[in-house]
């Protein structure tokens, strides 16, 4: 056998997002791009802000000597200091460059964090529904992923978490605003989560990390703000990227931020830099580190996604679909009108609308829509949603 049993198993489990993406490519080749309404992939349609283009031109046009050479594994100190200043403004906490590690996107950052904190057999908690790749990231580093429920608003069920956490627990991963639901966790819930973790630390006699995956933190709607996580638990590690807020997912640039009040922060930060190298990332892309240093307070306009949310949400609810209105990100997670979400998504595909079954996020019976697409794609998808609604007796 050429490949490991673990990778064989992961390939069999697969990613529903990637599976639908591949099927969509075949459908587009057959029918043409304009005839297929693809809401399956969170690939931002918005172009990067003008400030990004200006910074990119500046650095490409006037490069520093040695700008493309290796740098310290955690990244350029001046870029890390720029990130720290922005986090200090947002949180009121004394972030410094030592608390920041620049990474190859949030995915790279999560793998670095899990490599640092996990021993084989340690458990990592996630709340259903969740980004399925977490399963692979945890497995990569010998951990065991444990699923916990959310409530009807897609908020974590803290009572279930407290009742079912085992002594093997080492970390809890949260994602707010959330993929796939668009739910944003309120400050009161985050405080409650921190209290549960600190209570369990005292009970089990070892640290438990709160790992917050926040690539959508700046994409919130209705005048809301995403509450910072650091005040709620000393052992908080935030991982994020600029893939969504600057609309540059192909550039793979993000960072890890360790809570300044975390005991043993210096040892932790050193280990993060070490694992950034030993996992093969070595360091985040040099040019992008230079560019994003000046863009920490910059983002695409979230109103562009809010308009798309309002358009799609209004039409789906009008057709009879059950949908929790997203508060951020650019995803929607309606309830399928039949128990078999795969069959329902196949019905939508017959009408050339591509969506992802909820079981691809641990929640059979739902389906995910990514509305970070051209407005004409959303408009074109309505006929398919309407036909599927009639087929299954909605409205």
Key words describing this protein structure:
13 helices; three-stranded antiparallel beta sheet; globular; seven-stranded mixed beta sheet; Aspartate Aminotransferase, domain 2; 12% strand; Aspartate Aminotransferase, domain 1; 395 residues; alpha/beta
Topology:
Blueprint: H1 5-13, H2 16-31, E1 37-38, H3 50-61, H4 77-91, E2 100-103, H5 105-117, E3 123-127, H6 133-140, E4 144-148, H7 158-164, E5 169-175, H8 187-204, E6 209-213, E7 236-241, E8 254-258, H9 265-278, H10 286-293, H11 302-319, E9 331-332, H12 341-350, E10 353-354, E11 356-357, E12 367-370, H13 375-391
Parallel strand pairs: 1-10, 3-4, 3-5, 5-6, 6-7
Antiparallel strand pairs: 2-8, 7-8, 9-12, 11-12
- What is the helix content? 40-55%
Encode the helix/strand succession as letters: HHEHHEHEHEHEHEEEHHHEHEEEH
As a percent range, the share of strand residues is: 5-15%
**Total beta strand runs:** 12
CATH class of the largest domain: Alpha Beta
**Spatial shape:** globular
CATH architecture of the largest domain: 3-Layer(aba) Sandwich
Average residue-wise pLDDT: 95
Domain module count: 2
Name of the CATH homologous superfamily of the largest domain: Type I PLP-dependent aspartate aminotransferase-like (Major domain)
Taking Cα atoms only, what radius of gyration do you get, to the nearest Å? Answer: 21 Å
Structural class: alpha/beta
CATH topology of the largest domain: Aspartate Aminotransferase, domain 2
Protein described:
The structure is a single chain. The protein is 42% helix and 12% strand. α4 (77-91) runs parallel beside α10 (286-293) and α12 (341-350) packs across α13. By secondary structure, it is α/β, with parallel strands linked by helices.
